[in-house]
Specification:
It contains 13 helices and 21 strands. With 495 residues, it is an alpha/beta fold. The structure holds ligand BES and zinc ion (2 copies). Ligand BES binds next to helix 10.
Length: 495
């Protein structure tokens, strides 16, 4: 897909549509971008009172002549209230209304005098809005048809800003990879399929190396928790390591760990109807860290990042692991299985302990669709953030703000730790129902020792039941933009 910039609006090439931003006006909305000779074509539409420039409003016009067969006026709301997320969401909403066009011209508002944010940030938000909305998935949609756009021209943008647009394009590609993985049927997106995606990244980028442990190796490495969770399935577990080295001489190393449960039936503690239908998305965290590596490698960031994806299908059957079983984790602690539906924390515990012991990470972030409790607490709009390190938590919150992928920090309340005690093992994988997201996080914390660590519980945000703005139905790709922004900040800090 081509992303282009053309400074002089009159010099743009034709496309199927041009999107033109407007601020809300009392009588007639005020164009937020230079109109040039388009002003005439718009006069009738603007005086019709069908469009006032409010957020969420659009007006589609079919001009008799001109370079585009469609003009779409896009309301940005009050000029003084404009934010980057307004741009992202409104350009996304507008793109959705035009659905399935292949060439789009998009006018860039002159935000220079607003000073709330830079033109770079505006360009990023606009490109993200358009490209995140240019994604269409149903079970029948071929991969090649999931995106319609072949060219996006930013009209009224000095070509020197094009690098920001291209950067956002790469990030959106990562988001869409994550979405594809979440959306695919679990019989296709198996642990071995995720492993192949990891290997594909190594083929695409010289800077990426991928290692996969099969079920025999998982057992030999003594990742008994991962092995146990995967045991009941015909599709065996995999442990996937994708290493990106963008700063080979630096010892700084960020570890990302993503939950890769390709289907969560709940196991012997079977999930009820109503809770099971979307569980092909239970590898959302794994998909997020793979999408992040794809973006980071495409952007050639000068830092080292490894993604670990412990992956298994939590199936039900006579070979499945059972409540009451006790397993020795990779870390060495024994774990009593109180509930086979609390499987995510088990496979993450082995991956976290493996990463901390073998990869000398400077910091660790795990991403997981971990608990129903976080959905109850925060809904579909925010993910839970837990961390043993305030500075790391603040960095992530800053990136959350910058990308509008929302996080809310929740406590690793120390006195709850004893509720995870077991009579027959060192720990149990569940405690009470109340405060469930905290117990899951406390369980993970006990496997990272003292390394700066943060945990994102994306159970509510990874999979969406309604389409709105940049959020599609089904797989959202939550976390990729946030993690890339955070890693870019780390890169800048270390430079
Ligand atoms: N995969 C689920 C969590 C989940 C719930 C993800 C809703 C997405 C949407 C996880 O493995 C799970 O089942 N957790 C249990 C834990 C309980 C048994 C302690 C839960 O949250 O109910
Ligand atoms: Zn579960
Ligand atoms: Zn799960």
């Amino acid at each position: 897909m081509d992303v282009l910039a053309i400074g002089d609006i009159e010099k743009r090439k034709g496309a199927e549509a041009l999107l033109i931003p407007f601020y809300e006006g009392v009588k007639t909305p005020r164009a937020a971008a230079p109109l040039g000779s388009l002003a005439d074509a718009l006069r009738a539409g603007l005086s019709s009172k069908d469009f006032s420039g409010k957020r969420g409003e659009t007006l589609l016009l079919y001009p008799e002549k001109g370079k585009e067969s469609r003009l779409l006026l896009v309301g940005l709301g009050k000029e003084g209230e404009l934010s980057t997320d307004t741009l992202r969401q409104e350009y996304a909403g507008a793109t959705r209304k035009l659905k399935r066009l292949s060439q789009l011209n998009v006018a860039v508002p002159n935000v220079a005098e607003l000073r709330h944010f830079s033109l770079e940030d505006a360009v990023r938000a606009i490109v993200e809005g358009v490209l995140l909305a240019d994604y269409h998935w149903t079970l029948e949609t071929e991969k090649s048809d999931r995106k319609a756009l072949t060219s996006l021209t930013l009209v009224g943008l000095d070509p020197k800003f094009i690098s920001h647009a291209k950067r956002s394009k790469e990030v959106c590609e990562g988001v869409c990879l994550t979405r594809d993985l979440i959306n695919g049927n679990s019989y296709e997106v198996s642990p071995d399929y995720l492993a192949k995606v990891g290997k594909e990244l190594a083929r695409r980028f010289d800077s990426v190396e991928t290692t996969v442990f099969d079920e025999k190796r998982i057992l030999r490495e003594k990742m008994h928790l991962l092995y146990a969770v995967g045991k009941g399935s015909k599709r065996p577990p995999r442990f996937i390591q994708v290493c990106y080295r963008g700063a080979p001489r630096s010892k700084d190393h960020t570890l990302l760990v993503g939950k890769g449960v390709t289907f969560d039936t709940g196991g012997t503690n079977l999930k009820p109807t109503g809770a099971i239908e979307t569980m092909r998305g239970d590898m959302g965290g794994g998909a997020t860290v793979l999408g992040t590596i794809a973006a980071v490698a495409a952007l050639n960031l000068k830092l080292n990042v490894t993604a670990l994806v412990p992956s298994a299908e939590n199936a039900i059957g006579s070979d499945s692991y059972k409540p009451g079983d006790v397993y020795t984790s990779y870390h060495g602690k024994t774990v009593e299985i109180g509930n086979t539906d609390a499987e995510g924390r088990l496979i993450l515990a082995d991956a976290l302990a493996y990463g901390v012991k073998n990869l000398e990470p400077t910091r660790v972030v795990d991403v997981a669709t971990l608990t129903g409790a976080v959905v109850v607490a925060l809904g579909e709009g925010l993910s839970g953030l837990f961390s043993n390190h305030d500075d790391l938590a603040d960095q992530l919150l800053q990136s959350s703000k910058a990308t509008s992928e929302l996080l809310w920090r929740l406590p690793l309340h120390a006195s709850y730790r004893e509720l995870l005690k077991s009579e027959i093992a060192d720990v149990r994988n569940v405690a009470g129902r109340a405060g469930g997201a905290i117990f899951a996080a406390l369980f993970l914390e006990s496997f990272v020792d003292e390394v700066p660590w943060a945990h994102l519980d994306i159970a509510g945000t990874s999979f969406s039941t309604k389409e709105k703005g940049t959020t599609p139905k089904n797989g959202v790709g939550f976390g990729v933009r946030l993690l890339v922004d955070w890693l870019e900040n780390l890169e800048k800090r270390d430079a």
